[in-house]
Amino acid sequence: MTDRTDSTAEPPTPDTDRDAVFERDVLAALPAVARFARSLTRDAAAADDLVQDTFLLAYRFHHTFHAGEDVLRWLFTICRRAWMRDSMRNQRMVTTEDGTDAELDTLAAVYGHAAAKRAGEDALFERLDLAPAIETALGELPAPFRVAVGLVDVEGFSYDDAAAMEGVPVGTIRSRLFRGRRLLQERLLDFARDAGYSTAHPALTPIAPRTTITPRRQPRRAATGTPRTDQTDD
Amino acid sequence: MTDHDTLTPATIDCETAVRRLWDYLDAELDAVRSAEVAAHLETCLLCPPHYTFARQMLDALEASRREPDGIASLRLRVIAALHASGFRGGSAR
């Protein structure tokens, strides 16, 4: 029998190695998972329960995670599925019909902006602190739209990643996203009006100098092979 | 939008440009369609304000991302639950 002089020092084992990797790679993502859980539940206590469930499931199934994968995408998928399971169990899930034409929502948002511009109400993002209004407006969105906006606009995932996490086609996530954005825009403009905001003489507002408007990320490569069927504008 | 098309000598018209608005800002268009939008925005007098407004809203949404309150205590709680499942790590940072 080996005489161990230091009873507190444990030799490395596969389990402790695995736990060190889990702590470094998975547990470090807790703040992002907590933010996503709160966007799902809109309730701090329920979100904390969901975060705990998510990490217990992640620990249990950590062997299914492959090095090099996107750990946030993996965790958000677990979190979302756990939330769906709990929501179904508690029958709190309210299903909402998806938007049927994403581009109609885009056009509606543009027309909404045009009307706000005519009324001198369109500089709200430059002149108002909208952080509280954004939080409230996001919380009031129906869940499918809130989740799509949260994944793409707040967390920065691509449509493809968000669709994979939600387990729906890309066209569905795009419809939900665009509907959610249109509703958010309407609510933020309502907030600006309720706050008494408008430029006094919109016709006299100086024209802003022209600036180059670029995408937020690099555009996709030129289409080869099968085109996306959800781009129907041509 | 169509009444303004004659003002924009571009490959695509204004309606096509605004239909592509969010796809363009999200970089979800292929490179050819994205370039068509960019060229349109260089010459059109009417569409850029719509794009600027949409971009401002998306930037505001992105800026709303922040760490939720109570993360430190939540981390301790999660680690305690993990310990009950056999987890041996978890410093109390």
Search tags:
heterodimer, A: 234 residues, mainly alpha, elongated, disordered N terminus, disordered C terminus, B: 93 residues
Summarize the SSE layout with pairings.
The complex is a heterodimer of chains A (about 230) and B (about 90).
Chain A: H1 14-26, H2 30-41, H3 44-60, H4 71-90, H5 102-118, H6 124-127, H7 131-140, H8 143-154, H9 159-166, H10 170-194
Helix pairs in contact in A: 2-3, 2-4, 3-4, 4-9, 5-10, 7-10, 8-10, 9-10
Chain B: H1 14-19, H2 21-25, H3 31-43, H4 47-63, H5 71-84
> Quick one: biggest sheet of chain A?
none
- Helix content range of chain A: 55-70%
How does the helix and strand content of chain B classify structurally?
mainly alpha
- Averaged pLDDT of chain B, please? 85
The amount of helix of chain B comes to 55-70%
Radius of gyration of chain B: 24 Å
The rounded distance between the terminal residues' Cα atoms of chain A is 78 Å
**What gyration radius of chain A follows from the Cα positions, in whole Å?**
23 Å
- Mean pLDDT level of chain A: 79
Q: What is this structure, in a nutshell?
A:
With 234 residues, chain A is an all-alpha fold. Chain A has 10 helices and no strands. The termini of chain A are far apart.
